[in-house]
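User: hey, got a sec? need Sulfur reduction protein DsrE folded
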Amino acid sequence: MKTILLSTFVLALTVFTTAGVSAQEGEKHNYVVLTKKVPQLQPILITAEKLKEEDGENFGAFEVIICGQEIGDITDPAKIDAFIEKAEALGVRLIACGFSLNKFKVDRNAVPEKMEIVENGILYNFQLQKKGYHSLGL
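Assistant: Yep! Here you go:
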């Protein structure tokens, strides 16, 4: 009797543990990175590429928010165009912080069309975290 009870308990534990793992594996993994320097896009995009490979079908959204004093670098084609191209190929969204654009007097019309602008990059980052995004600030 003890053996049957123990076996049933172990079987039930195995089934529920496996069901929990399967549910987690089916979920999309979403990522957001907040960065202050355009050159940091190089390792960020390499990371996105590797995570996309690792996650496979579970790879969800990957967003990069650029803010801070060097936000003006996104208006320089020599500094940003290759990153925009790579991000687009990976399905990564590049986002400019509107607050930073205003503070450092960067013309919004000079922001590349393929980049989005949010009014407050830090707030947007927190909003994504509340939706379950994995977040990193650089």
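Quick note: The radius of gyration is 21 Å. Let me know if you need anything else on Sulfur reduction protein DsrE.
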